[in-house]
């Protein structure tokens, strides 16, 4: 699953550390999410989308495997 | 809250148990040196945990770091995956070890390893059954 976290985060001028703190996760988790190495739970995906003021579909791009 | 009173009490228990083992070993009540070593190790682990527990209570930055690490979902995922890999490795190593022991004529070792593999597989299936009812 691809995502636009890095793009949206940069557009909003938020650092990885700040985003991690707001979401209650580690900075490494944000880095892994942005690199596509880790797919978040639906709960975390919802938190991220809500924090950006967007829908999950706007942040995460679902792809058929 | 990662470190709580229950964990502090457990750490104190490890220190007391370790001191008792060390004392009994030094007094010659327990004849093996291994008990002394085990006691020392338990005391060290308990003391370290107590120190961490106290730091957690008194240092808000450390508390936040520990809580984030404990609740971070990627960390939880990594911990689960690591246990799974460790389990696979143990089953494989013991399985191969059992075959090697059989070839070497080490009947007792072969049986211990084979039963250990069976126990692990049984534990896996029991855990699977319990978890499939829960989720």
Can you offer a commentary on this structure?
The complex is a heterodimer of chains A (65) and B (135). Chain A is mainly alpha-helical and 65 residues long. Helices cover 62% and strands 6% of the residues of chain A. Chain A has a two-stranded antiparallel ribbon with strand order 1-2. Chain A has helices spanning 5-12, 16-23, 27-35, 42-52, 56-59; strands at 2-3, 60-61. Chain A is built from 5 helices and 2 strands; from the N terminus they run βαααααβ. The mean pLDDT of chain A is 94. In chain A, helix 2 (16-23) crosses helix 3. Chain B is mainly α and 135 residues long. The longest helix of chain B is centred in the middle third of the chain and has 31 residues, at 73-103. Classes of the chains: A mainly alpha (65), B mainly alpha (135). Chains A and B meet through helix 3 of A and helix 3 and helix 4 of B.
Helix content of chain B: over 70%
CA-based gyration radius of chain B: 21 Å
Shape of chain B: flat
Please give the largest β-sheet of chain B: none
Relative strand content of chain A: 5-15%
Calculate the mean pLDDT score of chain B and round it: 93
Oligomer: heterodimer
Distance between the ends of chain B? 25 Å
Please outline the major beta sheet of chain A.
2 strands, antiparallel
- Residue-averaged pLDDT of chain A: 94
Q: What is the helix content of chain A?
A: 55-70%
Q: Decide which structural class fits the backbone of chain A.
A: mainly alpha
The low-pLDDT segments of chain B are: none
